[in-house]
Design a protein that fits this description.
With about 130 residues, this protein is of the alpha/beta class. The protein has a single domain, classed as Cytidine Deaminase, domain 2. The protein contains 3 helices and 8 strands. Strand 6 and strand 7 form a beta hairpin. The longest helix is centred in the first third of the chain and has 14 residues. The protein is globular. The mean pLDDT is about 95.
Length: about 130
Amino acid sequence: MVIPAAMRDEIVAHARAGLPNEACGIIAGRDGRAERFFPAQPDEPSPYYYRIDARDQIRIMNEIDDAGLDLIGIYHSHVASPAFPSRTDAEQAFWPDAVYVIVSLAGGGVELKGYRIEAFDISEEELVFE
């Protein structure tokens, strides 16, 4: 997935703003190129997992459809663990065509990685920032 550097910075800022809880959002675009980032509201803020509020998800999906874009990625942060999908992340991976972008803020640093997750099969997906 190709993500503009400015969008990467927006995603990281959103992750930091969500502390001490995980932050989440949806990435829209075409053909593996991110064009818009939609910060989302969690239904229950938590430092251990994320789940996008259902009404916010519907709003975002409508905006994506109206813009003629596709959902290409789902983003969330890890506040104290590496940028690798947790068991809960794998259980909640309902979009097999999406790239799951994880931003780790563990130890005060920042690490972004992307993954495809389907039926607990996790494979890393290269993220390119331009």
